[in-house]
What does this fold into?
Amino acid sequence: MRLSAALVLLVGFACSPKPEQTWELTAQGIYTGAISADAEFALVGSLNHGASLWRITDYERLFDWNHKAGVPVELVAAAFSADGRRAVTTDPRTLVMWNTQTGESLQYWGTPGAVLDAALVPGSSDVFLGMEDHSAILFDAADGSLKRTLLHEGQVTTVGVSEDGKTAATGSDDNRSIVWSLATGDKRSEIDHGNPVRKVALSADSSLLLTAVSNDRVAIWRTDNGALQHVLHRRNPGITSARFSADGNLLLLGTVNRQVELWKVASGERLKRWTVKAENPWHPTGSAILDVAFTNRDSEYRALAGDGRLADLRG
It folds into this structure.
């Protein structure tokens, strides 16, 4: 497994354009990380030093965040609000909401089970959580109330929320992806993929769903009726991150072997592929691209790798 990843990495160096520049946010690698929607901030959960917030414009470490004083948190999920003013961090059993402007913790809660993934719901204090206990829950971080429970028959390993906060998507080990109305809890569409779903992402207007399925295809679907739009990969190359552009025209994908891909949504055409350089390409950890983001500048993108390096991509 490790040898195969290394061979793919070497091929990537030969055929893919290199990023313009990479920056080291932590030398020890990270459990998880997130980039804000405007690509101005990065949140990382370091292997040895807990969570920290970085301003990407000048690569300044702004705040160190932990769930318990003096104990580095081992994050399982991290996410920003749509406006970048709040962030959430979760370890398997606790959740903290943070103010990214002041660095203060806004709320601290114990979660009703082990958290696997998290997304902030725009325009609210709600957090949408994928859980180990086969559920996805809508949790109000302002008062700690459980607003909605959505059920699968396997662990809910990946979640996403639309930009208007009305629609959510879940992917599970039960082989299904489901698009939900957050207001009612009703299913808008459901797809049985035949294998566990490893990644989901919704377009800003919630009309499209990206799914990456274990040992199967990576595809874009319509959310109103579950119709297949495009197959991007007939066999999943190990997609670990995904994000649609705000206008829904482009899609960024990150993979387990340090590659980032740019796709044209309307045609299903791959426009670009980069490989984010590793400081030590033979090191077996930290190869996954944990998050990708569009910047406010045309043809400029960012990617966060598991070894703690942030890459500026041009193309």
Q: What stands out?
A: The chain is about 5% helix and 50% strand. Residues 93 and 112 are 7 Å apart (CA to CA). The helical segments are 2-15. The chain has one domain: 2-314.
